[in-house]
From TrEMBL:
GO terms for cellular component: extracellular region. The keyword Amino-acid biosynthesis does not apply. GO terms for biological process: lipid metabolic process. Keywords: Signal. This is SGNH hydrolase-type esterase domain-containing protein. It comes from Gossypium darwinii. Belongs to the 'GDSL' lipolytic enzyme family. One of its GO terms (molecular function) is lipase activity. Residues 1-22 form the signal peptide. InterPro entries: GDSL (IPR001087), GDSL_lipolytic_enzyme (IPR050592), Lipase_GDSL_AS (IPR008265), SGNH_hydro_sf (IPR036514), SGNH_plant_lipase-like (IPR035669). The keyword Signal applies.
Length: 331
């Protein structure tokens, strides 16, 4: 069964139509039984609604392009990274938030997001333990960690930190998380790099001067974290028997979109569609100011001051879907 999955996947990549985004759609029934997402707002699909966090995404114009136009707590105009991955892998069209008020039993079976914008991951292992059986070892664990720590904590208090020690500490925390999940039976991991934090609209606003340049020291911090993360994941790969951990570089594809945005049909890559973080709270989207939101979210690489638009996510995800199914489905 696994071999045909890879072969079909490859064929689909080679012959898939460009207007479908080139996403490798793993054939029905030959995919991961479930997707579990952990970490920050890149993969949060609404848990932050139920928790005390500074940043909130459950007010318009968030969700403007989401099915039904609902502000679900996703930090985006529509679907976020974890939804698009679940969709691309043909698991399901949306990845529900674990804390969603009407979560159905079968939602948990095929995966949920435990991530919460503004906070780390904890406490959820009990639920996973209940599920700990063969399904868990075949499920995909998606991890996005460190963006908030560096973009918020380090940005505000960087004078207090030594970046080398701080990035090591954050990578160690990601590594411990993977080991904990491994103990619970997880075997397949996709760990996202940081997004290009120095290029976020909010970084340009507060650190880029009059010309809204990208912020070099933040870029360097992100690059340092990413290279340490990649190194640590390779180390874990060879030290946790039977596991397969993919480092997923979303940093460089996003930088490419930002720097060559015209080539990819974007009009703007330095402002969020709904703000830059200058006046507004919540990373740049505020109900009162939503009339300032741009007309077409797809024309912006960034939806708000700190998060890519759905179209930007879609553009980077198609190759990832192929790599993930190719490299993680067979074991
Ligand atoms: C494993 O978990 C899945 C999902 O919770 C469940 O459907 C299945 O019956 C469980 N299998 C065993 C052997 O416990
Ligand atoms: C929005 O922008 C995208 C990307 O440039 C473009 O393909 C699409 O046609 C635009 N939609 C509208 C309604 O103008
Ligand atoms: C996919 O995997 C290939 C081979 O390992 C690698 O060279 C490429 O960079 C990966 N693509 C992405 C988008 O991760």
């Amino acid at each position: 069964m696994p071999v045909p999955a890879t072969a079909l996947c490859l064929i689909l990549v080679l012959f898939s139509t460009r207007n479908a985004g080139g996403v490798c759609l793993a054939p029905n029934k030959i995919t991961f039984p479930a997707l579990f997402a952990f970490g920050d707002s890149i993969v949060d699909t609404g848990n932050n609604n139920k928790r005390f966090t500074i940043a909130k995404a459950n007010i318009p114009p968030y969700g403007r392009d989401f099915p039904g136009g609902a502000a679900t707590g996703r930090f985006g105009n529509g679907k976020v990274f974890s939804d698009l991955l679940a969709e691309g892998l043909r698991i399901k069209p949306l990845l529900p938030a674990y804390l969603h008020p009407v979560l159905q039993g079968e939602d948990l079976e095929t995966g949920v997001s435990f991530a919460s914008g503004g906070s780390g991951f904890d406490e959820f292992t009990v639920k996973l333990q209940e599920k700990a059986n063969a399904t868990i070892s075949k499920s995909l664990f998606l991890v996005s960690q460190g963006n908030n720590d560096i973009a918020i904590t380090y940005f505000l208090f960087h004078f207090l930190y030594d970046i080398d020690a701080y990035t090591t500490q954050l990578v160690n925390s990601a590594s411990s998380f993977i080991k904990d999940m491994y103990e619970l039976g997880a075997r397949k991991f996709a760990c996202l790099s940081l997004i290009p934090l120095g290029y976020l609209p909010i970084s340009r606003t507060f650190g880029g001067g009059f010309q809204r340049n990208s912020v070099d020291w933040l870029t360097q911090a992100a690059v340092k974290f990413n290279s340490k993360l990649e190194h640590e994941l390779n180390h874990l790969n060879s030290n946790l028997p039977g596991t397969r951990i993919l480092y997923i570089d979303i940093y460089n594809p996003l930088v490419d979109l930002i720097q060559n945005h015209k080539k990819y049909g974007f009009e703007d890559s330095s402002h969020g569609c709904c703000g830059t973080g200058l006046i507004e709270l919540n990373y740049g989207c505020n109900e009162l100011l939503s009339s300032f939101t741009c007309c077409n979210s797809s024309s912006h690489v960034f939806w708000d001051a700190g998060h890519p638009s759905e179209r930007a996510y879609r553009m980077i995800i198609s190759q990832l879907v192929h790599n993930i199914s190719h490299q993680l489905l067979d074991i």
